[in-house]
Each structure stands twice: as C-alpha cells, then as structure tokens.
Design a protein that fits this description.
The complex is a heterodimer. Chain A is of the alpha/beta class. Helices cover 48% and strands 8% of the residues of chain A. In chain A, helix 2 packs antiparallel against helix 4, helix 4 runs antiparallel to helix 5 and helix 4 packs across helix 8. The radius of gyration of chain A is 29 Å and the shape is elongated. Chain A starts with a helix and ends in a 10-residue tail after the last helix. Chain B is an alpha+beta fold. Chain B has one domain. In chain B, 16% of the residues lie in helices and 41% in strands. The chains are: A alpha/beta, B alpha+beta. Strand 1 of chain A pairs antiparallel with strand 1 of chain B. Bound molecules: protoporphyrin IX containing FE and iron/sulfur cluster (SF4) (2 copies). The site of one iron/sulfur cluster has 14 residues of chain A, from helix 13. One iron/sulfur cluster binds next to helix 13 of chain A.
Chain lengths: 519, 167
C-alpha cells in the first residue's frame, strides 16, 4: 500500500537527521510537540497584534498597516512571526499526520487521536482563513468573496452572505467584529480539541526539547526579518480582483473554489473529509487478544497503570476477597498489545522454580512464560565465528523489538535473538537471569529511539529501568556495562549492527569474570 | 553543554524546512480575474407581492375564531416569485424566476449574479416583476455606463430609493 514507501522515506530521512542534529532534536521525531509549540507562538504574537487591531471597515487595514510600518521593529516582527509560525504549524501538522499514517498509528485503539485530528485540521484552516480576512487588503477581499460565495451554495443561510461584499457601501463594521470574534473563538475550540486529541495518550510529549525550541524560534525570527509579512493594498470592492499572492498553506484550495462550481467543491471536501475519518478502519486492524489480568497474581501495586502508554489499565475495587484494596483492569478497546505492562509487573520474575510463571498481567500471544522459554533456548546457542564454534567468543543474547532497526528489513531472527513486540516488554529480572544463571556475557536490548518508539514509551521506560530510576529496576548486582540498549531509528539498520558489533568487541576484550550472580 | 555541531546541524535542517514557509506564504500569486477585465455584479433581496389579496372575513367566520385571533382581514402570507431579466447591449444575458424564501414562502426573494464584461460603454436593461400580474414588468430601468478596466459595477434593487441602483 501507500504506507510502506512513505514509512521507508521517513526512516531514511529520520536516520539522516538523527546523525546530523541528534535524535533528541530531530524535528521529525518531535512533530506533535512542535505543533503545540507553534500554537503557543501564534497565540502569543496574536495577542499582541490584537491589542492594536481595529475592527472598523476602514480602520482594520489602517491599524494593521500602522503596525507593520510605524512599528516594524516590534509590531511588524510580531505580525511576521504570527504569519510564519501559523504557516509552519500547517506544515508540521501535515507532516505529523503523514508520519502517523505511515507508521500505521491510526488503526485499532489508536483511531481516536486520528479521528479527532480531522476536525483539528479544519479548525486550523478556518483559523487561518478568518485571520487573512481581518487584514482587509486585496487578499482579504478575494478570500471574503470566495468564501461567502461558497457558503451561499449551502441552503442554510437566508440572504446571500456575499451580498455583504457587493460594493463598498454594503460593507458593515459588524462583519469585522464577527470575524475578529471567530478568529479568537475558533483557535480556542482548537485548543480544546487538541486536549481531547491527547486524551488517550498518557504522558504525551507536548513540549519540544529546549535546544529545538530555541532554534525553531530563531529561524522563524530570521525569516520574519528577511521577509516581513505585508498587506497587499487596501481592499476596494468597486474593483475586480486581478492578481493576489496566496498563502498556500491556508488558502491553497482557493484556486479550486475559484474554478470549480460550488457544489463540486463541497462534494470534494466532503469526500476527502469522509475518507480521512474512515481511514482508521481501512482496513480494520486485526489484533491478538489484549493484555489479561491474573487476579491470583495481582497485588494491586499500580505499576502497570503508570507505565501503560495508552491509559488502557485502571485500578478498580478488589473483587476476589484478597487483602488488597484494588486490582488492575484492562480496557480491551484501548490496549495495543505492546506488553510494556508485563515488564512493569513485579510478579513477572523468571526465577520462580516451583509455581509456573504467571504474572499479574500477561500478553496471551507472547506470555512471560513463553518469553522465558525463548530466552533459555536462545541462551543455549553457542556463539559461532564463521561456521566454527568459537570457544572464547562472548555469548550474546539479544532482545529485538519487532518494530526496530534490528528487525527492520533484516533476515529472520538469529538463534540468539528473542523477538518482542516492544523492547519495553523485557523485564529487568530477565536480564538478571540471562547474565547470571544463563551465563550470558552480554544482553542487547534493541529498541527504537525514545521519540520513535511505536508504543511511545517502550524505550524511555527501559532506559529508566536500566538506570534504576523506575520500578521494576535492574538489580544492583547486574553489571550495567554488560547490557547494551540500542536506541536507533527503525531505518538505521547499519548503525544498529555497528553498535552490536562494538559491544561484542568490547566484551571479547575483557577478562572472563563470570560469577554466578544468581547464587 | 550543548553540542555546537549538532546545533548547527539543526539550524541548517530547520532553515531548509522552514524557508519554503516564507516563500509559499504569498507566492506564487493567483490570478482571479483577467487583468483589465471588468464585471457587473447584481444582487438584491426583495419581497414580491402576496400571492393572494386579503379577504374580509364574514361575521360568522370571525365568531368561529378565538378572541385573540379575530382579525378582520385574512391575509395569506405567501409571496409571488419575482421575474427578473438582465439585458446587456440589447442581448438577454440572464432571465430568472426567483421564488420567495422561508418555509411558508413568505420571505424575500434573493438574487446574486456575477457577469464578466469587456471594459467599455454598455447599455444595461433591467426588468423586474414583483406584483401578481401575469406578464409585463413593474420595474424597467435602462442605464448607459462607461465601465473602466478593473471595475466591479455593483447593482442592487432598493424600491424605496427608486428601484435598481448602480454602485
Ligand atoms: C496542530 C495540530 C496537531 C497537534 C499540535 C498534534 C499533537 C499531537 C501530539 C503532541 C501527539 C502525541 C505524541 C506523543 O507524545 O506520542 C499526537 C498524537 C497523534 N496525532 Fe496529532 N496533533 C495535531 C494534529 C493531528 C492531525 C491533523 C492528525 C490526523 C488527522 C493527528 C493524528 C495523530 C495521531 C493518530 C496520534 C496518535 C499517536 C499514537 O497513538 O501513538 N494529529 N498529536
Ligand atoms: S499491552 Fe500495552 S497497551 Fe495493553 S495494557 Fe499493557 S501496556 Fe497498556
Ligand atoms: S503491575 Fe501487576 S501486580 Fe501491579 S497492579 Fe498491575 S497487574 Fe497488578
């Protein structure tokens, strides 16, 4: 389909950008946060402009002109920043949307964010259109007439709205007051919807890292100084409109409105919107069973609740009479089957000998018991160099995220690799066992970048667990330098292989100092 | 300590990403109307006569009505459709029957039309029927105007100000 090639394109560019400006500052991994950032820039600069804006028929143009010319050093710059940050927001939003689409982050339980994204898209456009209307220059005249003629196609308004723009004498101050109101009200509704947009996303990243934020602001300021935003001459309804400079980010579809019959434009817009809204079900995602709670093993600690990236787990009153007040409950409509919660659960420990390994929360398609089984099998494989068994080559065990660079486009997993849906599913206690009882020399956890994790928090939580900053953490007895966490963009197959090779080399340089950590 | 090399890398990336923003914010321009062209824009909102005349209610009819609705005249509110003709330089350009608006057909009729014309002297003939008559027109007005290049000549209909008015 369309998704695969776009995803490859993103991987390619993101890999390259990761190298150029570092994974943390990569704009393509921060699109959602940048969208919010631009919203705040636009809101702040807009507030300043509003102080000086006048909603009169003739005063509107004059007030904007005076800001631009008499106060170029501040008002003019603010106006330019307001315009260019708004444009950048559209660019970022479209990239964000395309990236979520390419990474297939819209089907299944994730339909919600996408679905809300569609009205957000329109509200952003409407905010821009009302903004251009306010300036009341030639472009505003064009926008006003085209928009009202298009609205008049709908049989919901009484007198044609376009009559308001028949001649200079027909123009009314009230219309500008209405536009000024809309230009503030619509962005506020937008903000509300943005909040709803993130309703099912726990700990959403809404602020870009500082270095990225500062540089973005500087670049927008630079563009504002090099090419200040200006008006296109006062509107004159007694004249036809010849050439207008269009802002293609907001008004890009106006040539269509200009050339197509009104009903065709509405039909086209309706079909596009409908398709976008349906996208999460084209085709519907078929998923394995959601995470499942085993009450006998759930002690109500809430760790899984705080780790689930999609808020799919909640604590409810205890139902089985055990001496705990709460128990975990999974909402199957929100669960993405990532397995992160399995690693969060303190009962997921591979060291149990007597009872079978059944944690408080488990993933039916890859249970913790399966995971232990596969780990033990992989650990039993002897290291080979070429085709011969190498006596003192380090023994590596690798947990591979099926979405990350080590699985991406690679051959079927090697015998020493254990594939997991997300690297966040690997419990630290499993690493403990591998390096101890299973006598492995080094454990590799191959995930994605913290910002590129398909399940959002897998790499970040793993980082924190390894750093012993978050429960359940890697026990102190486990030497951290024998665990490699690969955090690379899914397209960065080459660097991932290099990192693993370097790790291997480092381990073969060291003296064998194996002690039974499990003793 | 921020990594200077990465910061420069980021700046380069962002300039490449956002420079087009500055460009496409007003370029390329779009041509809406032919340069030097002109147009006539006609629009009005006007209610025609009521479709049927008022009728005096008989004493019996009046008595049958509730007290608060006892009006002497029964006036159906539905209006006639307007008949509108626009001729330019002797040629019919637009002819329309404009139905009243509103659920019970009691609102004004609306018209909105844009007619591109060459910029030169034109004879404009406007005819409107807003009464119950079957044919002929209640308002017939003729204008001769020099339309300059780029001009948007607006025409409205205001019965209280003498009928069709040019702006
Ligand atoms: C200015 C507009 C927008 C802003 C500021 C914005 C912001 C965000 C943010 C901050 C996230 C969370 C990212 C994370 O922390 O993982 C997100 C997720 C998402 N956005 Fe947007 N967004 C916008 C518009 C859109 C639009 C128009 C669409 C699509 C029609 C869309 C689709 C999505 C989807 C599908 C996710 C969910 C990702 C997931 O479930 O993992 N967004 N957005
Ligand atoms: S599998 Fe993932 S999405 Fe589902 S409950 Fe566990 S952490 Fe949440
Ligand atoms: S982490 Fe495990 S024990 Fe704790 S609440 Fe969740 S399922 Fe229960």
């Amino acid at each position: 389909m369309l998704k695969r090639p776009i995803r490859r394109g993103f991987h390619l560019i993101e890999t390259w950008l990761d190298r150029l400006c570092g994974a943390a500052w990569n704009p393509l991994s921060n699109l959602g946060a940048l969208g919010f950032y631009f919203y705040w820039i636009v809101a702040t600069s807009g507030l300043y402009l509003y102080v000086f804006f006048d909603t009169g028929v003739t005063e509107a143009y004059q007030s904007v002109e005076s800001l631009t010319v008499d106060q170029w050093y501040l008002g003019g710059v603010m106006r330019s920043v307001h315009r260019y940050a708004s444009d950048a927001m559209v660019l970022i939003m479209v990239l964000h949307m395309t990236r979520e689409f390419a990474n297939d982050r819209l089907r299944g339980p994730r339909w919600f964010s996408w679905f809300i994204g569609v009205p957000i898209l329109w509200l952003v456009i409407i905010s821009g259109v009302t903004g251009y209307w306010l300036v009341w220059d030639k472009l505003a005249q064009f926008v006003a007439i085209q928009t009202s003629e298009l609205l008049d196609v709908l049989p919901i308004f009484g007198a044609p709205i376009a009559r308001n723009f028949l001649s200079p004498g027909h123009l009314d101050d009230r219309f500008f007051t209405l536009m000024a109101f809309l230009h503030i009200a619509v962005p506020l509704i937008l903000l509300l919807l943005l909040w709803v947009h993130l309703n099912r996303v726990t700990r959403a990243r809404v602020n870009p890292p500082r270095g990225l934020a500062v540089t973005v602001l500087l670049v927008i300021l630079a563009i504002s100084l090099v090419k200040p935003a200006v008006s296109q001459g006062p509107a004159d309804l007694a004249q036809v409109i010849e050439w207008v400079g269009l802002d293609w980010f907001y008004l890009g579809f106006y040539p269509l409105i200009d050339s197509w019959p009104g009903p065709a434009v509405w039909a086209f817009g309706g079909v596009i919107t409908g398709l976008l809204l349906l996208m999460p079900w084209l085709p519907p995602l078929r998923q394995a069973s959601p995470a499942r709670i085993d009450l006998d093993n759930c002690n109500g600690c809430t760790w899984c609740v705080s780790d689930c990236p999609y808020g799919a787990i909640s604590m409810v009153p205890r139902t089985d009479g055990k001496p705990f007040t709460q128990q975990a409950e999974v909402d199957p409509d929100r669960c993405l089957r990532c397995g992160i919660c399995v690693a969060s659960c303190p009962t997921t420990t591979p060291f149990r000998r007597i009872s079978p390994l059944v944690p408080g929360i488990d993933l039916p398609q890859l249970t913790a018991a399966d995971l232990r089984e596969r780990m033990i099998e992989a650990a039993a494989v002897n290291p080979t160099v070429g085709n011969t068994i190498a006596g003192n080559a380090p023994r590596l065990l690798e947990f591979v995220c099926e979405q990350g660079p080590r699985a991406n486009g690679a051959a079927p997993p090697a015998a020493t690799q254990v594939v997991v849906p997300c690297i966040g599913m690997v419990p630290p206690s499993f690493i403990d066992m591998a390096l101890g009882r299973l006598a492995i020399d080094g454990v590799v956890l191959s995930g994605c970048t913290t910002k590129g994790c398909v399940y959002r928090l897998g790499s970040e939580l793993t980082e924190q667990r390894l750093a012993r900053e978050r429960d359940p953490y890697l026990r102190k007895r486990v030497p951290r330098d024998r665990v490699l966490l690969v955090e690379l963009n899914a397209g960065d197959v080459k660097s991932a292989a290099e990192q693993v090779q370097r790790f291997r080399d480092r381990l073969s340089d060291r003296e064998p100092e194996r002690t039974d950590l499990d003793a | 300590m921020p990594d200077i090399r990465k910061m420069i890398g980021l700046a380069v990336v962002l300039v490449a990403l956002f420079w087009p923003v500055g460009y496409f914010a007003d370029t390329p321009a779009w041509r809406h109307d032919e340069v030097g062209a002109a147009q006539i824009k006609i629009s009005f909102a006007h209610g025609g006569a009521h479709k049927t005349a008022c009728r005096r209610r008989s004493a019996a009819e009046l008595r049958a009505l509730p007290a608060n609705m006892r009006k002497l005249d029964d006036c159906p509110r539905e209006r006639v459709a307007l008949a509108f003709v626009f001729e330019l330089d002797g040629k019919p350009i637009h002819r329309a029957s404009l139905p009243p608006t509103g659920l019970s057909g009691d609102g004004p009729s609306h018209f909105y039309g844009v007619f591109p014309v060459p910029a030169e002297r034109h004879e404009i003939l406007l005819k409107l029927r807003d009464s119950r008559r079957e044919d002929g027109y209640d308002h017939v007005q003729r204008f001769t105007v020099d339309i300059a290049p780029g001009r948007n000549l607006a025409i409205d209909f205001r019965p209280n100000a003498g009928g069709f008015i040019l702006y």
